[in-house]
Design goal:
Elements (H helix, E strand, L loop, with lengths): L1 H10 L6 H33 L3 H12 L9
Protein name: Calcium channel, voltage-dependent, L type, alpha 1D subunit
Length: 74
């Protein structure tokens, strides 16, 4: 416990103004999310556009496992 407290104190998370330090950290995190927001939206929209109907996917999977002839050449 003491090591964690000491580390937090060195980082400035414990002391005279802990709420101010927390606020600054939260604002930095929000800024980061705001900056990468458009990239995340693009990635999500690409994933949605790539989705195919389930029937098409199943047919493709069945084609992969179908084989003509006997197993192991019998």
């Amino acid at each position: 416990y003491f090591r964690k407290f000491k580390k937090r104190k060195e980082q400035g998370l414990v002391g005279k103004y802990p709420a101010k330090n927390t606020t600054i950290a939260l604002q930095a995190g929000l800024r980061t999310l705001h900056d990468i927001g458009p990239e995340i939206r693009r990635a999500i929209s690409c994933d949605l556009q790539d989705d195919e109907p389930e029937e098409t996917k199943r047919e493709e999977e069945e084609d992969v496992f179908k084989r003509n002839g006997a197993l192991l050449g019998n």
